[in-house]
Design goal:
The chain is α+β, with helices and mostly antiparallel strands. It has helices at about 50-65, 95-105, and strands at about 5-15, 20-25, 30-40, 40, 70-75, 85-90, 95, 110. The chain has a single domain (about 5-105), classed as OB fold (Dihydrolipoamide Acetyltransferase, E2P) (Beta Barrel), CATH 2.40.50. It holds the Pfam family SNase. This is Thermonuclease.
Length: about 110
């Protein structure tokens, strides 16, 4: 049975268009700092032939998420990618941000 868990978090750093670092509120004034990969999407890389598109994706995500309060929805059991980043769906102002990046053409679907 798949369970979803919601966590409040503050975005502290944008690594690239699909990777962020957050301070996650676990409740009772307990916070952890974690790196998250936006689940189901991929943005252009910051190196190689996609460099310019990758920089633009990072700039967009930085302007929209940095220092903002978000909701992180994650599957239970929690899953990580091959780099140890937690896979999560991000909500900004109640809207699925992963889907927003897809709809705007900033990201591509990888499911």
């Amino acid at each position: 049975m798949l369970k979803l868990y919601n966590y409040k978090a503050k975005v502290t750093k944008v690594i690239d268009g699909d990777t962020i670092e957050c301070d996650v509120d676990l409740g009772s004034n307990v916070y952890i700092h974690e790196k998250f990969r936006l689940n189901g999407i991929n943005t252009p890389e910051l190196t190689g032939s996609e460099k310019e598109e990758g920089k633009k994706a990072k700039e967009i995500v930085t302007s929209e998420l940095l220092d903002k309060e978000i909701i992180i929805k994650s599957d239970k059991p929690l899953k990580t990618d091959k780099y140890g980043r937690w896979l999560a769906t991000i909500y900004l102002d109640g809207i699925n941000y992963n889907e927003t990046l897809l709809e705007r053409g900033v990201a591509k679907n990888i499911d």
